[in-house]
Specification:
heterodimer, A: 340 residues, alpha+beta, four-stranded antiparallel β-sheet, 8 helices, flat, B: 546 residues, mainly alpha, two-stranded antiparallel ribbon, 62% helix
């Protein structure tokens, strides 16, 4: 009680007692009360009507019919009808109940006293005594051997629950360090799965490419996983504009006549990058706007990514189609603990 | 006693459960009335709607990543390879009558659930309803908000369309960035590489069983504690710290709260029928090499996405291991600090005030200026992170430099909240002065009076009882006194450092409070008003001088 008393005494003056109350129309005018009663009943009756209409709509309206509505646009007639009828059926029960409460039920506020939360001194003493007696009888304090072994056992027993999670997935081991790209593997267009002839790529163009053979990898064998790792973008930049590359020598360059291939997977959190500005050779990630300069070794020029976009060394085969010189030399995609 | 129950069914129940006693207490329970008390109700009702619509959706949704060729009613995707999860989402949207309605009701309700919880927490914060004895319920509320956000994100990921896959890809990147365990955690969660073929059934179980179960349990405890503690109330006539003034559960509150459930439910269903949300058929199935520009997460994920966007690139190699601070700082450390400060705030403020009393009367935000200013500061910080999630949209919409916007936001994140703190605090203190003025000098009546020597004054009348009760309920907290560092004999006191820190924080919190008028000042003011009504205007100077 002490806390509450303390609080009250700290208030400069007691709060005035009377709770204001004004009579409503329905309290004094029987006509108004009957009107309110009618309004409530109409809402409940309309609700019932809308439920019936819902069932009719469900049965009668063809699900494939579309209607155009102002503001909302073209939408399924069945869905709109069901939403309207069911929504109103529910909504009107709510408005009816609240109207009833506001107009016709007593609106006199009542006072409830609060109780003390803290236990009485006797209860505290009794509880503490019971606990102490019980603890003494159990011998938990007087027999440290039992206590310590119990604590040890309790600390260890959840371990199997964690260990059994082990087979949720394989050891990531080195899987993050390589993709399916191999030396001589052709680059295919992502959409039509056709090999790409170097001569067909104009300067300024960007092509999404996948490894030859990716489409044949079965879904169950991880087609999507390979796709997530091996997708590249191919761009052709005027060789005079290329300031640097991630590898290659003058004799064996990583590009082919200004055609460069980079991973499409952002080194920030792994979104596939899709926006290429051909004038600046910047590649912009749509997720967090990391910007990479493809003419300058895929370096980050802005945004939260920390590592350059990995470059895939390419060349052409005897038929003039683009092929990879090998796998990426660095892991693609977002950073991870074992990366460096 | 049970023989007095004439209805045999009720007697049966009472003889087995002694229900009458509990029912009597429950039906007499008093609930104070205020519009802001409905915010928590909206959250609760949205959760019930989520459970109802969610059960319906589980009957039709197939949580499987097995590849199928779509052959449903939606023509543009006919013949396209996709997961069973996505195919069944399309079936729910196009081939199950009422399926689209339920899906959209579920999504709208999820947005309302997180939104209502957030605004409800703001109400609790700004009115001080988290103070003793309700601190634990505040923490439960914080956990519920977090669970709601995670649950929303998982639900959004289930349809396996292009948008949901992009969200998952980002979360995979975040998991990978976790020091030490990241790579393993990602492999275990996705059953190998990303995206794998396991995560949909896994997150389905978490989404429909694990998290809803925990939310349900916590909501139950949350509600029981509200019943046990009884509701807080705003100050007003007849309302004290020791009572609750309001309507009894039976009948008024039951009709109002029950009716309100139907209103929230009704509006959600109307929205589900009329306003398209998350059209999963728009972007097609998830393939990891495609993404759509300008894709936005649901609103409650925005702050996290914004933080990740404006974080400058920062990555270190330490002992041959990669530490991607670009992600660790905005996506782990920052939200960790935000949530910890939020959960601990009741104890921080109690420590600053040195106040160990129970509080059942709510504060008007102006009467706790530092708390209110801190709240607005936090809200501004959150708001800037949230805006940052749309930095690309801002750049495109207004034709501005994307880099300039990002740099502006980086600075704004630290400057604007500080400004917001200062401005809010000044506004609160000004409002406190106005309240003090109203008590001492009354309100301007609009009646101008000319005095014998020619001066014009405006007559002030005392504020009415309801306003007076509200203003007088202000609590002045005296800052904790700065303790001496050593006792009378010159011996250093052991805990002086901590106590002095407490005193400093306390002075910062409460030092510039505008005190409520004292008894004497109020009595003097009353005397003035009494003179006025007597027609004697001796002290008109003072009455008009402000």
């Amino acid at each position: 009680m002490s806390d509450l008393v303390h609080h009250e005494s700290s208030t400069t003056r007691p709060t005035p007692a009377p709770i204001p109350h004004a009579l409503r129309r329905a309290d004094i005018d029987p006509k108004a009360a009957r009107r309110a009663e009618r309004q409530v009943a109409i809402m409940f009756a309309l609700s019932a009507l809308f439920t019936v209409l819902f069932v009719i709509a469900f049965v009668a309206i063809d699900p494939s019919v579309e209607i155009g509505l102002p503001v909302i646009g073209t939408t399924s007639a069945l869905n709109v009808s069901m939403g309207l009828t069911f929504g109103l059926a529910i909504f009107l029960i709510g408005t009816g109940a609240i109207h009833w409460a506001k107009k016709l039920m007593p609106d006199v506020e009542v006072v409830e006293e609060r109780h003390e939360f803290a236990s009485s001194a006797e209860d505290v003493a009794a509880a503490s005594e019971t606990f102490k007696v019980g603890a003494a009888e159990s011998g938990v304090m007087s027999r440290p051997l039992i206590r310590r072994t119990l604590l040890g056992a309790m600390a260890l027993f959840p371990i199997p629950l964690i260990v059994t999670l082990r087979d949720l997935g394989p050891d990531p081991a080195t899987s993050k360090f390589h993709t399916m790209w191999r030396s001589g593997m052709r680059l295919h267009t992502d959409v039509s799965n056709q090999p790409i002839r170097a001569a067909d790529i104009p300067v300024g163009n960007l092509i999404n490419a996948i490894p030859d053979g990716l489409e044949e990898v079965e879904h169950e064998e991880g087609n999507l996983n390979e796709r997530a790792k091996s997708v590249v973008v191919v761009v052709r930049i005027d060789p005079a504009d290329i300031r640097s590359q991630q590898g290659g020598t003058a004799e064996e360059p990583w590009d082919y006549n200004g055609i460069l291939a980079f991973s499409k997977v952002c080194t920030h959190v792994g979104c596939p990058i899709s926006l290429y500005e051909q004038r600046t050779h910047h590649l912009l990630c749509p997720c967090h706007q990391s910007t990479f300069d493809l003419a300058d070794g895929g370096k980050v020029v802005f945004g939260p990514a920390a590592r350059p976009m990995p470059q895939l060394a390419i060349t052409v085969d005897s038929e003039g189609y683009l092929v990879a010189q090998g796998d990426f030399t660095v892991p693609i995609g977002p950073s991870f603990w074992e990366l460096s | 006693m049970s023989t007095t129950i004439s209805n045999p069914a009720l007697r049966w129940v009472d003889e087995r459960f002694g229900a009458a006693k509990g029912v009597k207490t429950a039906l007499n329970k008093v609930f104070p009335d205020h519009w802001s008390f409905m915010l928590g109700e909206i959250a609760l009702y949205s959760f019930i709607i989520l459970l109802l619509s969610g059960v319906y959706l589980t009957l039709f949704f197939v949580p499987s990543m097995t590849e199928v060729v779509y052959n449903g009613s939606f023509v543009p995707l006919k013949g396209v390879k996709m997961s069973e999860a996505y195919a069944s989402s399309l079936d729910i949207s196009f081939d199950v009558r009422g399926g689209l309605l339920m899906r959209q009701v579920h999504h709208w309700a999820a947005l309302f659930f997180v939104g209502a919880m957030s605004v409800h927490m703001l109400r609790i914060f700004f009115t001080g309803a988290f103070r003793k004895p309700r601190e634990v319920n505040w923490v439960i509320g914080t956990v519920l908000l977090l669970l709601g956000i995670v649950e929303g994100f998982l639900g959004y990921s289930l349809p396996d369309d292009l948008l949901s896959g992009t969200g998952l890809r980002i979360s995979e990147g975040l998991i990978l960035a976790t020091p030490v365990i990241g790579t393993w955690a990602s492999s275990l969660l996705f059953g190998g590489g990303f995206p794998g073929t396991d995560f949909i059934p896994r997150i389905f179980t978490i989404h429909i069983l694990l998290i809803p179960g925990i939310i349900l349990a916590l909501v139950t405890v949350h509600m029981l504690l509200v019943v046990f503690h009884k509701h807080t109330q705003f100050p007003g006539p007849g309302r004290t710290n020791r009572n609750v003034v309001g309507y009894p559960l039976m009948p008024v509150y039951m009709a109002k709260a029950g009716g309100f459930f139907f209103i929230v439910f009704g509006i959600t269903v109307l929205l589900g029928g009329l306003v398209t949300i998350n059209p999963v058929w728009m972007f097609g199935p998830y393939v990891p090499n495609a993404v759509s520009a300008g894709s936005q997460p649901d609103w409650y994920m925005g702050f996290l996405d914004g933080a990740v966007r404006i974080m400058p690139a920062l990555e270190y190699t330490i002992f041959n291991h990669t530490l991607s601070l670009s992600l660790i700082v905005p996506a782990m450390i920052l939200p960790g600090i935000m949530v910890t400060l939020m959960a601990l705030y009741p104890w921080i403020e109690a420590w600053a005030s040195g106040d160990k009393r129970e509080h059942h009367l709510l504060d008007r935000p102006r009467n706790a200026p530092t708390r209110t200013a801190l709240g607005v500061m936090a809200l501004t910080f959150y708001g800037i992170l949230w805006i940052s999630a749309g930095n690309d949209l801002i750049a495109i919409t207004f034709g501005l430099s994307f880099n300039a916007i990002t740099w502006t936001l980086r600075f704004a994140l630290f400057i604007v909240p500080a400004l917001a703190f200062w401005v809010t605090k000044r506004i609160c203190l000004s409002l406190q002065r106005r309240d003090r003025d109203l008590l001492l000098h009354g309100r301007e009546s609009g009646n101008i009076m000319r005095l014998p020597h020619g001066e014009f004054i405006e007559i002030h009348t005392p504020v009415d009882e309801a306003v007076r009760a509200k203003l007088l309920a202000k609590e002045d907290i005296t800052p904790v006194l700065m303790p001496p560092t050593e006792d009378a004999n010159g011996v250093a006191l052991p805990r002086a450092g901590r106590q002095r820190l407490q005193a400093k924080v306390s002075a910062w919190f409460y030092g510039d409070n505008v005190p409520k008028p004292t008894e004497a000042e109020l009595a003097e003011a009353e005397a003035h008003f009494a003179h006025l009504t007597d027609g004697q205007h001796h002290d008109h100077k003072e009455i008009s001088s402000h």
